[in-house]
Amino acid sequence: MGSRTLDLDIDLLRTFVTVVETRSFTRAADLLGRTQPAVSLQVRRLETQLGSPLIDRTGRSVAVTTEGAALLPQARRLLRLNDEIVSTLGEGDLEGEVRFGAPEDIATQHLPRILGAFARSHPRIRLSVTCDFTANLLDQMSRGMLDLALIKREPVGPEVGASVWREPLVWVAQDASLGAQSPLPLIVAPAPDIYRKRALAALQTAGIAFRPAFTSPSLAGQMAALRAGLGVSVLPAAMIPRDLVAVGAPLPPLPDSEIALVIAGGAGGPTGLLAQEVLRALERGPRHAERPAGFPTGL
Hints:
alpha/beta
């Protein structure tokens, strides 16, 4: 008689993947609507089932072992197949509403494909998307107006949300010579935009004089001003269109952009499901997300 086939527990696999994607047992517990000890116990049960350590617990941060790294892509495939089956066959598909917030540049460049696929897979879940500055999104979350948000945060200091990706910020202009003008003509969003804050802080620290040349809360408005040659602005490196250029010295370097996913405390159900989809789609950064025509893919 052959050996008994081991049936993996989908719930344990989902917990393992969520821990890896959030890089935290605590944040995974928030997403899954469980306690941190319960999440830790589930990962240990999966390790016992497979007879291999999956999470390296010796360091301060979550890291996967060699066995865990090998399991991760297979676990994701099983979860996707499970969710597709449940969605296709299921009258029992989740229903409700998820109120999602994101800054305009992130929402327009990285979310349409993800939210479109989620809406098709879960037609009973209503999506409501709000575009605003990070400070305003966090305020709306604190007042119970949003369930989930992608935000821009400082890469150092107290952590807010689960880190999704980091990438360099760069000065951008229609012509690099604009970076040598004094005072520097700046194209920025109004306060409390975090890129505005970083641009002003970097210029003040470097002792570079500047003047507001164009201020707009709209990314489309800022891009139009850049293309008209009105000044210099700040963008993530991966978002520089082919008809604009990065500007170096004498302008000072800028700290990295870091994007995090914030979820309302203890939220599960539709909100937790969308949070996992967003993390899974964006965890390696926007270079791996679908990009509109005209945007570079190799930066």
